[in-house]
Inverse folding.
């Protein structure tokens, strides 16, 4: 069973905490109750004059007091592993889930809404970690149930057999309600996720709701989702409580039957070769039945937790569809105490001399057309522009080159060396990338540019100047320390693009990759940005997607794409003479003949 295998893997990962937690369960549920029943039996048999197995009433009282003190001290002494056991499992699951999102984001994006993803990060690891606690408790109670059943069977086999009936009934009931438990759990989680997702959308699009005058409709929708979540949560809670009540009542019924039969048999032997059933025996049964009362419920709990765990695993897997099924539970270092480990050392800078792409092919998972058999190369310091109509495969080519999309074929060479994993290779300081729709975070502009880098004032100033952003920064209320709102909502489209460019320049990478960087810029700002970028001459090697005349005029090489294939390449002047597709793009941009306007080729 997949979910039980995950529980065992997590228990091995948290072995010290799991052993400690299980030891506490064994002491509280097995080690203490077992002799407590024997001591109670000796006490009552001593009072009635029956054989007390070597203990008189006073020594039995002393044993009972000692056991009760041990139980009181067991919690503080052994109960501490529970919280770190839960926390370590949750941190591992969240770490692996986040890592899977990072690995597959370029390929799959985020398959669920942001709020829904947050819900799955927050809630589902808790459900999975709870199963470990249930397993620890079950081990302790199982040991008690086995030994207690043996002891009671030696006293009266019939009554001991009656004690086990509720266990079988509980297991049968849990299996009978298997589908309902799983479906109710899944429905409750999905409803909670929809509430979280819609709340995220409301917060991110509040201005749009106000402008459209649909605030009341949005609140009504939010209320409807909340009501749906309430109904599913109540339905799940009712099923859980019903299961618990049935488990306990079945056990109480069995307990009542045992006590009635035991009371009738006190001081009577069931057969000539058996000793009479004493008051002490009845007291032992009462003590052991109190512990056994929870055993069927514990069995039901672990069965229900495993079913919930299956739902939670499926929900987490849906966030990272490209990961192996058990990847979220793969052991990895987590740090619950002590200093954090040192940051990973920056990757070694490797100067780019030549980049070559041979036969690069990429097909989208959705079946949409990607790119096929694309080959090109360029030397250090070259400015290469990928041009083409909408849907020609320009962005797909960039993303496949950078490893953000899986290759179906082809090879990439850096200075003549084949790159097996482009996604891990094309990172700073080798490469830096600015996407077509840059993502900014709800923080200050400075934090968005640095993204964890040391705050170097000179490097920041250079990057801001290269991105033609200095006037914009000066116009902000608090300069670089101005909060820019959710996803940079306080900035214009052009400011967002130039902020992303500054963030890219700050990495000082060997190879810059940009996807339609200047699409939201006016002609003057765009011309200035490209001018500043190439002011460093051969220090800049850039691959860019753009149909803008300013970029095309400056290009050392234009890669012309159509329907996912590279149909032509060369400088602008040559392509305008020999390619009807290039002339069409040039006319669409309303460009003047090559060589006029805002800058000649370099």
């Amino acid at each position: 069973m997949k979910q039980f295998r995950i529980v065992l893997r997590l228990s091995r990962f948290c072995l010290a905490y799991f052993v400690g937690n299980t030891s506490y369960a064994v002491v509280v549920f097995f080690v203490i109750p077992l002799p407590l029943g024997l001591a109670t039996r000796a006490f009552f048999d001593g009072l009635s004059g029956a054989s007390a197995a070597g203990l008189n009433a006073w020594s039995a009282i002393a044993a009972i007091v000692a056991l009760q003190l041990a139980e009181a001290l067991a919690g503080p002494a052994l109960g501490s592993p529970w919280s770190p056991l839960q926390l370590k499992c949750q941190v591992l699951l969240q770490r692996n889930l986040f890592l899977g999102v990072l690995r597959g984001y370029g390929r799959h994006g985020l398959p669920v809404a942001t709020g829904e993803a947050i819900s799955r990060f927050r809630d589902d690891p808790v459900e999975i970690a709870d199963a470990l606690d249930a397993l620890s408790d079950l081990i302790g109670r199982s040991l008690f149930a086995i030994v207690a059943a043996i002891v009671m069977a030696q006293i009266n086999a019939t009554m001991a057999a009656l004690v086990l009936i509720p266990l079988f009934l509980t297991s049968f009931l849990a299996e009978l309600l298997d589908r309902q438990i799983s479906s109710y759990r899944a429905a409750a989680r999905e409803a909670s996720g929809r509430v979280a997702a819609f709340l995220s959308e409301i917060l991110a699009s509040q201005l749009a709701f106000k402008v459209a005058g649909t605030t009341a409709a949005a609140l009504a929708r939010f209320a409807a989702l909340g009501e749906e979540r309430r109904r599913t949560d109540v339905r799940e809670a009712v099923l859980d409580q019903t299961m618990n009540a049935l488990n306990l009542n079945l056990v109480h019924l069995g307990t009542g039957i045992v006590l009635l039969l035991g009371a009738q048999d006190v001081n009577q032997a069931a057969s000539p070769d058996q000793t009479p059933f004493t008051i002490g025996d009845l007291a032992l049964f009462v003590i052991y039945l109190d512990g056994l009362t929870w055993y069927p419920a514990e069995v039901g709990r672990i069965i229900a937790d495993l079913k919930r765990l299956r739902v939670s695993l499926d929900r987490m897997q849906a966030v990272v569809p490209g990961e192996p099924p058990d990847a979220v539970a793969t052991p990895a270092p987590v740090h619950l105490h002590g200093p954090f480990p040192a940051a990973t050392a920056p990757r070694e800078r490797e100067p780019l001399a030549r980049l070559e792409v041979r036969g690069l092919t990429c097909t989208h998972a959705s079946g949409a057309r990607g790119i096929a058999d694309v080959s090109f190369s360029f030397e250090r310091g070259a400015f290469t522009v990928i041009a083409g109509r909408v849907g020609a495969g320009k962005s797909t080519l960039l993303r496949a080159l950078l490893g953000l999309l899986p290759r179906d074929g082809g090879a990439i060479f850096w200075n003549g060396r084949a790159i097996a994993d482009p996604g891990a290779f094309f990172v700073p300081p080798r490469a830096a990338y600015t996407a077509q729709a840059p993502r900014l975070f709800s923080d200050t502009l400075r934090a968005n540019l640095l993204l964890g880098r040391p705050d170097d004032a000179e490097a920041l100033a250079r990057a801001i100047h290269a991105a033609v952003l200095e006037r914009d920064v000066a116009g902000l209320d608090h300069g670089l320390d101005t909060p820019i709102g959710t996803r940079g909502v306080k900035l214009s489209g052009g400011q967002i693009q130039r902020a992303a460019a500054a963030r890219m320049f700050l990495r000082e990478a060997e190879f810059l990759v940009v996807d339609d960087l200047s699409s939201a810029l006016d002609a003057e700002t765009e011309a200035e940005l490209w001018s500043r970028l190439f002011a460093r001459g051969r220090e800049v090697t850039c691959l860019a997607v753009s149909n803008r005349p300013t970029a095309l005029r400056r290009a050392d090489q234009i890669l012309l794409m159509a329907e996912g294939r590279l149909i032509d390449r060369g400088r602008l002047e040559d392509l305008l003479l020999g390619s009807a597709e290039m002339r069409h793009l040039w006319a669409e941009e309303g460009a003047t003949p090559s060589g006029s306007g805002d800058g000649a080729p370099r």
About this structure: The chain has two domains: 2-329, 352-426+541-602. The chain has 22 helices and ten strands. The first strand starts at residue 354 and ends at 362.
